[in-house]
Amino acid sequence: MRVSTQFQQPIRTLALSVLPCLLAPVAQAQLSGNAGLLSNYLYRGISLSDNRPAARLALNYDDASGWYAGGQAVTGQLAMEQHRSLQWIGYAGYAQRLASGLSWETGVTAYAFPRTANWNFREVYIGLSGEALSARLHYAPDYLGFGERTLFGELNGGWLLAPRWQAFWHGGYLYSRDNALSNRAEARLGLATGVQGWQAQVSLDFTRLRNENRNDIYGVNATWRRRLVLGVSRAF
Q: What pTM, to 2 d.p., does this model score?
């Protein structure tokens, strides 16, 4: 099933943190953006806002040739930080539709933490998407500046429940070749709706870490942790 066009606005910007990436780029050049609030800014199952609300601004450009680029700024706060600071994500890539109807993509993503620059890192990724499913594989040679080589695989899906209601799911696994304690699984189940440029969603997020008592930038996490996340945004 094709996701409703009302959810096309945040194709990649929200895919970086909340909504799954389900659609191929639109067939014409398009500049889009959104601004919103989240009750908790989760990235691959880890809170980058110290389990507190965060504001986010995102922009994305899709070119008719298949090239795209964009980024977002979030008012994050890592577990060891005392104050909020902006966190930046930028990405660029190329996507193309195959004769089979599937779409493939490849690109690079850069993450920046201005107050802790040694955590900045980059990833390259490849992906494949269909009508209702998408998959991506990411590789980072120096994840979060820890000197760890990581692979992150993810699957995303969704289906329409009603004209303005969409259910979505996401699952991912982070594997570190250099530190098994960094390995973790995470998943998300959610519901989203939108009307006249406004979008709202609720999701239940699950995270499983290898180390139950880890206390660093990830915070303290149990083996399995469940968190409810609420979000609202306005497209422009």
A: 0.84
